[in-house]
Amino acid sequence: MLQISKKVTFFRRNYFFIMGGIWLLFGITMLIVKTYDVMAYGYTIIGLVYAVVGYFKKDLALEFIRWDDEKIEISEWQQSTRSYSWERIDGIKVSATNLTIKSGPAGGTMVELKGYTKADIEKLKTELTPEQNLATA
Hints:
Blueprint: E1 2-6, H1 10-13, H2 15-32, H3 38-56, E2 63-67, E3 71-75, E4 82-85, E5 91-94, E6 98-103, E7 107-112, H4 118-136
Antiparallel strand pairs: 1-2, 2-3, 3-4, 5-6, 6-7
Helix pairs in contact: 2-3
């Protein structure tokens, strides 16, 4: 399966851990200062929940577009992988900034290509357009 990937920045990759750490820091600080406010416990719990969510969503930080003879799969930041079979795709347009997939009367998607290299975008243009033309022929 051919694939292009986008390099995910440190803050995007660790968003939930960073936010959880901030909430946890506020909560623990309030407990140390002995405010004993309900908010201190709430902040601590929110921080722990963020960390748990970050642990279970660590694979969703990947951003890629991959394809083969049967389908194309798209994964964007913090979203599950979407898959389109070539039979369901009505059209594909690859520009310098976007990949647009039309599937059905109101289906499909548009993916921003910001962050992908020019070589990756050229690979999309050369590989995907012939694949789509063969599937709809």
